[in-house]
Structure formats: C-alpha cells, structure tokens
Design a protein that fits this description.
Largest sheet: 6 strands, mixed
Number of helices: 9
Structural class: alpha+beta
C-alpha cells in the first residue's frame, strides 16, 4: 500500500487512530506547524527554443503596397529561413538569432519611365530576451532587437545598372525590429506557461491520502501559500524553485466528511530561497497493556532492601495505567510489606537513553496512608527513586519503523508524472503525555522533500 506525504507510526498493536485527532492535539498541547514542499522548476533551453520555433509563423512580415510608409516605393516579404537559435545567455537574459529570407521590390521612376525590379537576399536578426515568471505563473519575456547581420546583401538589377538598396532595407528592418520582438514575446506567452504544472501540484497536495487502511485514517494536506525564487540559468536550463506552504491534518473515517475547500491557486510570492526542510509529526501511542509487559520484564522478581537490610521486599506483579495526566504504576510486593504500592509520575522522553521514563515520581496518597500504619520505612523515597531511575519504555522500534516509513513516503510516486524525492535528516520523539488511550507521543521527523514533475 502506498503511503503519501505523512505516515503514522504504530507501536505494537495499539494506536491512537480510534481517538478524535482534536482530542489528541489538545492532550499533547499540539501546535500545527507549517511545512514547505519544494518543487524544482527546470525549463530546458532546448525545449524552450523548440516551443518558440513551433509557434513562430513562416511569413513574419509583408508590405504589399508601394504607396504606404510615406510612399517608400517598396514592397517587402519576410520569411523565416530557419529556426531561432540561442547564441548566449547570462543570468536570465538570452541572446539569439533568427535567419530570414527577404523578397523586396522597388519602384523606380526616371525620365518618365517606371520600373519595379525585385530581389531576394538573406540576413540574421539578433535579439535578447529577459525571462521572468508572472505571479500568475506565465512565462514573461521582454525582447529587444539587437540589430542584424547581412548574409547576402540586396541588389536591384535594372538594365545595365545594379542598384544597392542595403540602406533602404536596413532602415526598414531597424524600424520593424520592435514588431518582430513583440511577436516573439506573444509567441512565448501563448505557448509556454507553468500554470498547468503548478495547478497539478496544488490539486495533488489537496487530495486526501490513505495513511492507514486498517484504521481508515486519512491525511489531509491544506496548501495555503506559494513561493518562488527568481529564474536563473544553470547549464542548459532555466531553473527556479517553487515552494508550497502546507498544513497537515488527519481524519479518522471517510474523508468525504472533511471540509472541502475550493481550489484556488494563489499568486506566488518571490523569495530569494526556499527552505528545503519538511517537518512530519507522527502520532504514536504505547498502550498500557504493552507498557505493563515491558515494565514487568524489567521489575518482576526485583528485590529491594531498606534500613540496611532490615526490611526486604520483592515485586511480584506490576501494572501500568493512568490517573489524570500522570502515569500510575501499581506494584504488588511480598516480603516485609505485602500489598500494593502505587507510584505515579510524569512520562518524559529521554533522548540520550531513547526511552520514555518516569519523572517526578512519588507515592500515591492512598499508599502513603497505608504505609503510615504498617511500613513507614517505605516513605523515605528510596522506592520512588529506584523506580524512576530504572523505569524506561524503549522507543527504538518507533524510531526505526518511523525512519523506514517516512523514507518510503518521501520517495514515492504521488500520481503519474509527479514523484516525491527526499532524504531523512532526523527522527526524534518529542512530547509525551499519559492519556486514557495510552502513553501519547509525537515523533518529529525532518526531511528534505521535493516534488519532481516530468516534462516541466
């Protein structure tokens, strides 16, 4: 079963999924933290070049009249001789050339005689375009003409005289460079946009994912904001990074019952860099049944001496439970004291020992009342200190399973053509609290996550 965006780690057989997630958040004083999913944008310069060429018409310019343009006595047709070719790039500015074939016909009148000889020739137009992305995710270019280079110069043949018209044609080309530039900008605008890819990533992020089929637990990701770094040229690509700010929630039951928010793609905010740390918070619960088993393995048969060996007790049974917000350990002893001793304390994760331990341990008031009569020597704190120092519920299984689960999650295909790639930086248990369901814990996982869209 594929697990996406967030996984919940199970400890043995008991989990928190049967409990309303809002109660869990309240019990742990849980604060939702936003995360950033980074999406690298990689626009191939070759692909961009091909898109521009496919969108440019073959006939670029045509002047059908001798009498327009202040009666310049000239007709002209300009065709694209070949493909636009990028010749250089620096940062987000590209320079390129467009080879053209030009047909020109010039009306010449002399001594009452009018002629209209025609000629064909070739040249290269030079342009530069500054690339950027609009807040609406369109590719925007501002193109300027840089001039032209003759391949073959235009010459009109009239009778026995050749008339060079390079100055006339040159002026015509210079006057129309801005027209050609606007046409290139329009071609890019009509044929190139990031919006379909960004919208796909946004819609994918909003789609609920099944985290646990067994417990019918779904993950709901709520994207709330969008960021993007400026376009930069790297090698043969235009590159940027898109960052989606998300909040992650869970739902037990049918996700159709969740609040459905309309899909609206917000304009992005330009930032210099996108943080690549993705925080995943995993809910866990150690059941009291399992905590009891672990504790019995540690303490059953343990013998303790008091007053330099005057009193001796042995633990013959032990049960872990909860009272209010504290963990309660009931020990049954034999020896100098036969009966139940209740010790309560606050569960806390010890990162050095990698265990959930008991802190602020003390005898329960019921036990104190009994001991005042029959075992005052137990009131000196030795028993509490011993339990506190030796009690520990290992969480290695949680950490190891969490690492494997998160690693699978952040290296999975969300949908066709959209893949998640990532690596784990750290997995650390955080807050721990005793509740009716068990010993609740949050495991914080930090990872570097990116979504790769094929063909962007």
């Amino acid at each position: 079963m594929k697990k996406n965006l967030l996984l919940f780690v199970y400890f043995i057989s008991q989990t928190i999924f049967a409990q309303d997630i809002k109660e869990v958040n309240a019990a742990l004083d849980f604060e939702k933290k936003p995360s950033i999913i980074s999406i690298p944008i990689d626009i191939s310069i070759e692909d961009l070049q091909n898109q521009i060429n496919s969108g440019m018409p073959d006939l670029i310019y045509e002047d059908k009249s001798f009498d327009d343009n202040d009666h310049d006595e000239l007709k002209v047709k300009v065709w694209r001789k070949g493909n636009l070719i990028f010749t250089g790039l620096q940062n987000d500015v590209f320079s390129y050339e467009v080879p053209l074939k030009i047909w020109a016909q010039k009306r010449i009148s002399a001594l009452g005689v009018s002629q209209a000889p025609a000629t064909e020739f070739e040249l290269k137009l030079k342009f530069s375009s500054k690339f950027s992305i609009t807040p609406d995710y369109d590719i925007l270019t501002v193109t300027n003409g840089l001039g032209y280079v003759w391949i073959t110069k235009p010459v009109l043949k009239t009778g026995y005289v050749d008339i060079p018209i390079s100055p006339v044609i040159g002026k015509l080309i210079e006057n129309n460079l801005s027209l050609f530039a606007r046409q290139i900008d329009q071609t890019i605008k009509e044929n190139y946009s990031l919006k379909p890819y960004v919208l796909k990533a946004w819609e994918t992020a909003k789609k609920p994912f099944l985290a646990s089929e067994e417990y019918n637990t779904w993950v709901i990701v709520d994207p709330v904001d969008m960021f993007m770094t400026p376009l930069k040229t790297v090698g043969k690509s235009l590159k940027s990074v898109l960052g989606i700010k998300v909040f992650v929630e869970t739902l037990v039951g049918n996700p159709a019952n969740a609040e459905v928010k309309p899909i609206k793609l917000p304009p992005f905010k330009t930032v210099n860099s996108i943080p690549d740390i993705f925080e995943i918070q995993l809910f866990n619960v150690i059941s009291y049944e399992q905590a009891t088993k672990i504790s019995q393995n540690m303490f059953l048969g343990q013998k303790y001496e008091f007053k330099n060996g005057k009193y001796k007790i042995e633990i013959v049974d032990l049960v872990v439970s909860q009272e209010n917000e504290q963990m309660l350990i009931k020990t049954v002893t034999k020896g100098s004291f036969k009966g139940a001793i209740f010790i309560k304390g606050i569960p806390k994760y010890n990162p050095e020992k990698k265990v959930v331990e008991l802190t602020a341990a003390e005898l329960d008031i019921k036990t104190k009342n009994i001991l005042h009569k029959s075992g005052a020597w137990l009131l000196e704190g030795y028993m509490e200190r011993k339990i506190e120092s030796e009690f520990g519920l290992p969480v290695d299984d949680i950490i190891n399973y969490g690492r494997a689960a998160v690693l699978e999650t952040i290296n999975s295909e969300i949908t066709k053509g959209v893949k998640m790639k990532g690596e784990i930086i750290s997995i650390t248990p955080d807050k721990v609290k005793a509740s009716e369901s068990g010993i609740l814990a949050i495991v914080n996982s930090k990872a570097k996550v990116e979504i790769v869209v094929k063909g962007m």
